[in-house]
């Protein structure tokens, strides 16, 4: 047995960590609460179990200053590591942005190819859709990710594109065993054009200015001393 030669207190702490699974027994105070052992004793036991390679401490994105404990042979859950979007507890915003752009680019090229096919509008529309599995395969083949991405990760990115109004999703029934389907359903995505183009006023700083009503020539806030207007005209 792994715990051969361990005393009852050590076995108890090991059991608590084992019960927590790969989401971790959050931290040492949790273990103290469940074991009723003094914190100094728990810290000693944890060090001992770590040295025997029975448990390991993992940093959690949810609480950067706390160590999460789990059995040595387990892989931490995504809720602990933050999954593909985190590296050493830091959110990889640039990586997410690159994925965002590449997923959209793939869907745009799919829509473009459908338009150029010159088929009837219904066939064109249907062929402009791509499954999340197709997008995932494309991203994997690009080789832009250092970490292994799941289809779920790609769907998270596609959801951000939906919120941005760049992509729409539809769910269709799929035969069991169809690649990319889950529970007899498949998510399909396609690039869409914005419903309405922003008007000229909205494109200028004035259209979004919070002090627009107080702005007038000769006043403290005026078009002639507006830094945003100057920047916009230079752009």
TrEMBL record:
Phylogenetic placement of the source organism: Eukaryota, Metazoa, Chordata, Craniata, Vertebrata
Q: Which UniProt keywords apply?
A: DNA-directed RNA polymerase, Nucleus, Transcription
| Pfam families assigned | RNA_pol_Rpc34 (PF05158)
- What's an example GO BP annotation here? transcription by RNA polymerase III
Question: Under which name does UniProt file this protein?
Answer: RPC6 polymerase
- This protein's source sits in the domain of life called Eukaryota
Q: Which PANTHER family does the protein's record reference? A: RNA POLYMERASE III DNA DIRECTED , 39KD SUBUNIT-RELATED (PTHR12780)
**Entry's localization field:** Nucleus
Q: Please provide, in alphabetical order, the Gene Ontology terms of the cellular component aspect for this entry.
A: cytoplasm; nucleoplasm; RNA polymerase III complex
Q: Which family does it belong to?
A: Belongs to the eukaryotic RPC34/RPC39 RNA polymerase subunit family.
Xref: InterPro entries = RNA_pol_Rpc34 (IPR007832), RNA_pol_Rpc34-like (IPR016049), WH-like_DNA-bd_sf (IPR036388), WH_DNA-bd_sf (IPR036390)
């Amino acid at each position: 047995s792994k715990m051969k030669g361990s005393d009852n207190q050590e076995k108890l702490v090991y059991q608590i960590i084992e019960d927590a699974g790969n989401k971790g027994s959050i931290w040492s105070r949790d273990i103290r609460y469940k074991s009723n052992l003094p914190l100094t004793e728990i810290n000693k036991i944890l060090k001992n179990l770590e040295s025997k390679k029975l448990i390991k401490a993992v940093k959690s994105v949810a609480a950067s200053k706390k160590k999460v404990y789990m059995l040595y042979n387990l892989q931490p859950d995504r809720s602990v590591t933050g999954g593909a979007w985190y590296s050493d507890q830091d959110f990889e915003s640039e990586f997410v942005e690159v994925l965002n752009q590449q997923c959209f680019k793939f869907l745009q090229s799919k829509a473009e190819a459908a338009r150029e096919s010159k088929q009837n509008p219904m066939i064109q529309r249907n062929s402009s859709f791509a499954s999340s599995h197709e997008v995932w395969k494309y991203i994997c083949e690009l080789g832009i990710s250092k970490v292994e991405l799941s289809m779920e990760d790609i769907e998270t990115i596609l959801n951000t594109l939906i919120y941005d109004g760049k992509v729409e999703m539809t769910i269709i029934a799929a035969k069991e065993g169809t690649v990319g389907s889950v529970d007899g359903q498949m998510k399909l995505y396609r690039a869409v054009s914005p419903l309405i183009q922003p008007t000229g006023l909205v494109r200028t700083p004035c259209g979004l200015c919070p002090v627009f009503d107080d702005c007038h020539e000769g006043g403290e806030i005026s078009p002639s001393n507006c830094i945003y207007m100057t920047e916009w005209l230079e752009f």
